[in-house]
Amino acid sequence: ASHGESRAFAADVAKLLHLMVHSVYSDRDVFLRELISNAADACERLRYEAIANPGLVGDDAKPAITLTVDAEANRLTLEDNGIGMSKPELIEALGTIAHSGTKAFMERLDAAQGDSANLIGQFGVGFYSAFMVAEKVDVISRSAGTAEAWQWSSDGKGTFTVTPVELAEAPARGTRVVLHLSEDGKAYTERFKLQRIIKDQSGHVPVPISIKDKPDAEPTEVTDGAALWTKPKSEITAEDYTDFYRSAAGQFDTPALTIHVHAEGRQEYSLLAFVPSAKPFDLSDPERKGRIKLYVKRVFITDDAEIVPRYLRFVRGLVDSADLPLNVSREMIQESPILAAIRKSVTGRILGELEKLAARDDNAYAEVWANFGAVLKEGLCEDFERREALLGLARFKTAASGEGWRSLKDYVGALRENQTAIYYIAGEDAARLAASPHLEGFRARGIEVLLLSDSVDSFWVTLGPDFEGKPFKSVTQGAADLAAIPLLDAATPPVSDTAPAVTDFIAFVKTTLGEEVADVRASDRLTDSAVCLVASEAGLDRQLEKILASAGR
Ligand code: ADP
Ligand code: MG
């Protein structure tokens, strides 16, 4: 297989490969996780295709991933009996950048200026990470159900070749990745090292993984490919969950919350979901979808079933349904009323588990809120049915809370005498909001004011929500209505609005500013400052006005 035409990698691949070859990333072990995850994906895709077309798997239906060590030749081989790749698929998949994480990695790379090591750790970079340990990589693949096999080869230096190979030289079905290890990669011919890495990184991949010590040795199983989510919770340790999360989601952090449910009754499904402890890089990308995979009776169907609403897009994991039909198309599954019921149920479960975490562990929940609160609040605009639950989950900084977070329950529990509204001030920066003169009169009365500094805040508050019967009211809008609420320091009585000094001053300001303002009036809002601007009761809040103006509306 030596006279294949040579093709150039897409420019961004060449750049990435250069980085891999000269890798400064110390944790090279991740290449194994990436290759194993590709092999497992290929097995799962085949399992799905074989439902409609059982001929694809024939007698050999059991998925398997086998690693073969050849210490003498300094070679490590990974073989799967998955779906395989045709010639055009090889060229497309291994000549361009498909992996969304890899794409994002490349985008960040220029900005990060030389900190690629740290970035690789955050993103994981798919197939090309093989070049961290190999000076040459061969990929020999036979697409399931076809009678031809192809070999892709590259030394990672700008070009690759694709050549036909004899069927006898190729796997009967699936893909063999041969790593010709570099000096740095030598250690990956040690069986025990491989075994440990596989258990750590890929211990819960739903395809069994075996190792052969030598090319002619018998394989021994390292992991059994049992689906973690089907096991009873009592048999699963926290470590198992973390390992699963890391290998399934390609993450490196420890989940902040693990949700594992076997639902029975109207819908029967298993849910295994994780709230990450680190913010995903594309959290605010409007294209980002939910990250909950859909399985049916352990067969992977799609990661695009939008199981949870957009405001839960930070949650990772999977749902495995026992009720959905397997023998229909993905599209039909997506539209099934059973799936609609599962979506609803899963969303409710996740919110319920967040509530439980909040009740159980303030600090842990505060961290979740700090990372994902701004996303959860989008639900206040989109999901009216769950608005109450979401308001219950919401946490706020207030003018008096310092670094701490307040719930609305706390807020409403500490209302001042005669206080009938939940007051807020919206803007870009919590510290600046806290210093606003609009707060003076509130502070003097011991009234808490929520500091709303996420851009989504200006929207949901205008939709007229209330919490336990208390409406939300902007302190920068309309009359402040504070007269009925006593000052904390009773020694400074409020100046009467009708005192001549006040009415004369107002008249003066009105004639001076003329048409520039709609009204000028005395207010209980201020104690130290002389004046402040407020929006009218009927119009938009000032912050929303600003956002809309900057969006050109
Ligand atoms: P990702 O797995 O996120 O798509 P990778 O860089 O890991 O990105 O892999 C690129 C593509 O190469 C995969 O999407 C898949 O189409 C193909 N591929 C890689 N390894 C295999 C394999 N063992 N079997 C079949 N296809 C594979
Ligand atoms: Mg991959």
Automatic annotation (TrEMBL):
Signal peptide: none annotated. Keywords: ATP-binding, Chaperone, Cytoplasm, Nucleotide-binding, Stress response. Residues 1-330 are annotated as: A. Residues 27-168 form the Histidine kinase/HSP90-like ATPase domain. The keyword Cytoplasm applies. GO terms for cellular component: cytoplasm. One of its GO terms (molecular function) is ATP binding. Residues 331-546 are annotated as: B. Its main location: cytoplasm. InterPro entries: HATPase_C_sf, HATPase_dom, Heat_shock_protein_90_CS, HSP90_C, Hsp90_fam, Hsp90_N, Ribosomal_Su5_D2-typ_SF. It is found in: Cytoplasm. The keyword Metal-binding does not apply. Pfam families: HATPase_c_3, HSP90. Gene3D superfamilies: 3.30.230.80, 3.40.50.11260, Heat shock protein 90, C-terminal domain (1.20.120.790), Histidine kinase-like ATPase, C-terminal domain (3.30.565.10). Belongs to the heat shock protein 90 family. Molecular chaperone. Has ATPase activity. Homodimer. This is Chaperone protein HtpG.
